[in-house]
Amino acid sequence: MKNSKWIWTDDSGYNLVNSWVQARKVFQLKNVPNRAVIGITADSQYRLYLNGKYVNRGPARGFQESWPYDSVDIAQFLRKGKNIIAVLVHNYGIGNYQYIHKSCAGLLVWGKIGNEDISTGKEWKIRLASCFKTVLTRTSKQSGFQEHFDARFEDNWMSGSYGDSNWSQPHCMDYGSMPWPKLEQRGIPLLKEEIIFPKTLASKASGKCAKDYKNSVSVVELYSNEEQKWLSSDESENTAALKIVPSGKDKFISYCIDFGKEVVGSIRLSVAGGAGNEIIDTIVSESINGSEPVILGSKFQGSRVNFGNRLFLRKGKTKHEQFDYWGFRYLVIIIRNSAKTLNINVSLRSVGYPMEIKSEFKSSDSKLNSVYEISSWTQQCCMLDAYVDCPWREQAQWWGDARVQGKNTFYLSADARLFARGIKQIGTQQLENGLLYGHAPTIAHHCILPDFTLTWILTHWDYYWQTGDLALFKSMKDNVHKTLNYFQEVTAKNGLLPHDKRYWLFMDWAGLFDEGYPTLYNLFYLVALEKVVKLFKLSGDNNSVKLYSKRMKTLKSAIEKRLYNKGTKKILAGLFWNDKPATQSIPHNYALAIIAGLFPEHHDDFARKQLLPLIKGEREHPVLPSPFFMFYIFEALKKCGYNKEVVDCIRRWWGDMVDRGLTTTEELWNAKAGDNSLCHAWSAHPIVHLSDILLGINQEKPGWKEISFSPEFSDLEYARGKVATPLGVIESGWEKIEAGRYKTFLKLPKGITVKKGRY
User: Fold this and answer.
1) Matching fold, domains 5-129+153-164+176-188 and 194-352
2) Which string of b and e fits 467-490 if b means at least 16 CB within 10 Å?
3) Which stretch of DSSP H or E encloses residue 744?
4) DSSP 3-state of 73
5) Contact 13/104 with Cβ under 8 angstroms?
6) Which CATH number describes the domain made up of 694-759?
7) Which CATH class is domain 360-693?
8) For 116-151, how does the pLDDT look when each residue is reduced to its tens digit (9 = 90+)?
9) Under a CB-based contact definition with an 8 Å cutoff, are residues 360 and 266 in contact?
10) Biggest alpha carbon distance in the chain?
């Protein structure tokens, strides 16, 4: 590793915005080994090829101070004699919601194959990839750039017969050079990849291309400025192999292809019959309205979404695979300026975290079964090299979302690696005052969220509770102390946390009171202090236990004294800056009070008078919790024993998503397609609640060493399923024998005991 060099075409800090580089090395092998592991990384991203065949992509997102690398076994791609290792590297040249740019770019490879050292250095050849256009529109304000690839300038640079004598020697930097002083293993598996194909052809359109279409820097804005008259199509047509009649000079033909559900991956096109004058634009969408794909264009939504690419065809055959991966359901293919019949093969290299799904849920209620299925699929779509809010709009590692996603994942697979990696990454990007960014790595300096910082504290407990392992918490206790010092320093004389106007206090999309001293914010702080006291006690740090116990007691007293009306038994929304009470009725506060154990004598009143009317209605509350915050509402109701009511709400509110044809859970209730995400795993928590309630499986001790078994029979005929744990899979279920009589079963792996429940 240390003998390898970081390489680039020139000074690695020059002209990097949306830059593309191709690098290659030829080497000889007398024999092909059974195993050939190399190390590879790049800033920002790479795609690795051996002897013209795709191997993998990487690295995982990270920080240059300890940049991630991949270990890849390339033995299956090697051959006796001449071999060619080729790498395509892309550098954003800017920061975004996944990456912090440090004004440098580079590729680093190391390893020996037999006697051949393939480490990057002067022996490699390198060049700028001229087939990629660089001055282009961003795909969204949170992500990178559109990709415009001109196949007319592409050559056979990955082949053994190719001559690279006119390529340059790379500019080299020693291993350990800034901004990459050290490397770290990615800590999670390489992404799972497979080739999948579209399902049906939804619709077609045709028309005249807009003026200057050949020079467009945004295919989405071009599309928005053209008149597309979409007509329903024959669904029997083969969508994976399209035969395209000529569009005519300066005209287009468009196809809207349905993959059948939300997918995540890189679009692959193989085109035969090109004259060399054609252009193919591709645009992705999560929804369709009648026959028309929902593509709003950046003028009509907050994130300025422009997810589209362009391919300039060469004469004869053109093959190209998109570099980035996106989340979508519908793919719009626009063929421009074609004079000949084209044959286009369409596929997708799907990507995702290689999570082994071990859970199951089946019941006599088909609607609940469908809710569980779309929730599970949503969670899988939102797991990449990090937990991401959505695979479409930004792919950012939002940590408020990740807390819910972690719980979903534990039930689905018991895999805690992505969660642990995220805890470390969020804790790494810490302000001097102790606060954390809402997602990381990121350059979104307006996304410093004190409430998500508190959520980060809570996820330390979640990880320990799932695994029984304190090592992660102990390794980050200095960051935890620093974080909690911020909250102590800003606490007002009245004992409450104020809204620090320098930062975004999110809490939920529900229009919550956030002036002065918000109650919900203080309740989250109280819960975080309670968990941190437990973690330090388990760690044997008595001084920290005393310190944070005192702070917890002081805060609890201030909440009870100032944010609760004993006469009306109602929790205030908060206090204005002048200490006057804010009386907005906020169900969130009652849920958090129950979770925090505040006013225990009133918990049933809180549930019956504040939470049950909310979930029994039809999403009409003036301060309606988002699907995200309903996780906490349900947790509170379960704690109070209102399990049937939670199931009924899931059946109706999430069942509505099923009824509307969604294949994943949406970001907001009745999300606006093209603006809001239709695949958001912070809404996928029915996975947890249906397992807790209908399967009756509830964790009672850290590491799942003890559970309780109390299934809620509800109004169903049967329910059965599985929940994953670190100790193995728990199987449970029940069926109705006759009115009031049920047969149950429970199968536990070794190491888990059951606490006596109702059955």
Assistant:
1) yes
2) beebebbbebbebbebbbebbeee
3) strand 741-747
4) strand
5) yes
6) 2.60.420.10
7) mainly alpha
8) 999 999 999 999 999 999 999 999 999 999 999 999
9) no
10) 87
Distance CA 628, CA 683 (A): 5
Question: Distance (Å, rounded) from C-alpha 142 to C-alpha 211?
Answer: 29
Fold of domain 5-129+153-164+176-188: Jelly Rolls (2.60.120)
- Model pTM above 0.85: yes
How does strand 53-58 pair with strand 288-289? unpaired
Query: What DSSP character marks residue 686?
Result: H
Asked if 523 and 593 touch (Cβ cutoff 8 Å), the reply is yes
Q: Tokens for 426, please give them.
A: 């969020």
Contact call for residues 235 and 200 (beta carbons, < 8 A): yes
The tens digit of pLDDT for each residue in 640-693 reads 999 999 999 999 999 999 999 999 999 999 999 999 999 999 999 999 999 999
For 410, the token pair is 């534990």
Beta bridge partners of 410: none
Asked whether the beta carbons of 591 and 515 are under 8 A apart, the reply is no
Q: What is the 3-state secondary structure (H, E, C) of 279-302?
A: EEEEEEECCEECCEECCCCHHHCC
Give residue limits of the domains in the chain. Answer: 5-129+153-164+176-188, 194-352, 360-693, 694-759
Region at 740 (left for phi over 0; alpha for psi -120 to 50; beta for the rest): left
Alpha-carbon 32 to chain mean position: 38
In sequence order, the β-bridge partners of residue 110 are: 39
CATH 2.60.120.260 matches 194-352:
yes
**By C-alpha distance, which of 555, 656, 544 is closest to 598?**
555
Q: Which tokens hold the place of 144?
A: 């990178």
Q: What tokens were used for 200?
A: 């049906």
Average pLDDT over residues 319-340: 98
10 by DSSP, 3-state: which? coil
Determine contact, residues 667/274, Cβ cutoff 8 Å.
Answer: no
Q: Using alpha carbons only, give the angle 658, 295, 224 rounded to the nearest 5 degrees.
A: 165
Return the closest-CA partner of residue 585 out of 638, 520, 497. 520
Asked if 476 contacts 482 with a C-beta cutoff of 8 angstroms, the reply is: no
For 8, half-sphere exposure in the C-beta direction (CA atoms, 13 angstrom radius) is 20
Taking the C-alpha atoms of residue 14 and residue 9, their distance in angstroms, rounded to an integer, is 10
Integer angstrom CA distances of residue 77 from 237, 334, 437:
36, 35, 41
The partner residues of 127 in beta bridges, in order of sequence, read 22
| 21-53 pLDDT per residue, tens | 999 999 999 999 999 999 999 999 999 999 999
Beta bridge pairs of residue 420: none
Q: Is 387 helix (H, G, I), strand (E, B) or coil?
A: strand
Residue 624 has pLDDT above 80, yes or no: yes
Smallest Cα–Cα separation from 487: which of 516, 451, 518, 512?
Answer: 451
Interacting residues of 196 by C-beta distance below 8 A, sequence separation 6+: 259, 263, 265, 347, 348, 350
pLDDT at 303: 87
Question: Rounded CA gap, 448 and 190, in Å?
Answer: 30
d(CA 518, CA 505): 10
Total length of the chain: 759
Query: Cα 471 from chain centroid?
Result: 25
Tell which residue, 173, 17, 185, has the closest CA to residue 106.
173
Q: Tell me the DSSP string of 619-630.
A: S--TTPPPTTTH
Closest CA to 256 of 171, 180, 199: 199
* DSSP secondary structure code for residue 393 in this structure: T
Rg for the chain, CA atoms, rounded: 28
Q: Is the dihedral of CA 120, 57, 267, 297 positive or negative?
A: negative
- The answer on pLDDT for 236 being more than 70 is no
Give every CB contact of residue 83 below 8 A, 6+ residues apart in sequence: 26, 27, 28, 29, 50, 51, 113, 160
